[in-house]
Amino acid sequence: MSRLFLLASFSLAILVGCNSSSDSTTGTVTELSDDERLERDLKMYEQVWFDFLNNGDTLAVSAEHFTEDVTIITDQGNIVGIEGVRQFYMNYLNGFSEIEFTIVDAFGQGDKIVKHWNFKGLHTGNFFGIPATGNRLDLSGTTLVTMREGRVASEQDFFDMKSMLDQLQKASGEVSVDDYAPGTL
After folding, report:
1. What CATH code is assigned to 33-169?
2. Domain boundaries defined on the chain
3. Residue-wise over 149-164: b if at least 16 C-beta within 10 A, else e?
């Protein structure tokens, strides 16, 4: 009986801990509001991608930040699991130098996050099978994200594939695909 009680108490503590915060001075645990949970998720999400792409910290894609069954939805088929996700995004680190990854905006509601991003880099390595061209890439896109218990459960990227390929296959360096500047539309 006491083992069952301990197991139930431990399980409840884990569930509450995922959606709560504690005050170390009083020892009290408080439930996070939906807005507080979303703010926590946004902050973690932005930091993970900054660390991964701008700092090359491949361990940012870990069980701390991603569910074990995290899924990247692609037109070539879904990539499932933390290691698969890490390897998928390693294509950016292996394919480019001088990387500048910026989250232009990120917002959400409930367990959903929308990220508007910009990726810049010099194409100096193999990128999803495309050999290095030495061209610069300046690409913007949007990612739809689903969170589960404070961790990334799925992502789906949207960007102009033709523009990306045009930039990588151009004969000379500086190219900008985004014909608009923010605020000019």
Report:
1. 3.10.450.50
2. 1-31, 33-169
3. ebbbbbbeeeeeeebb
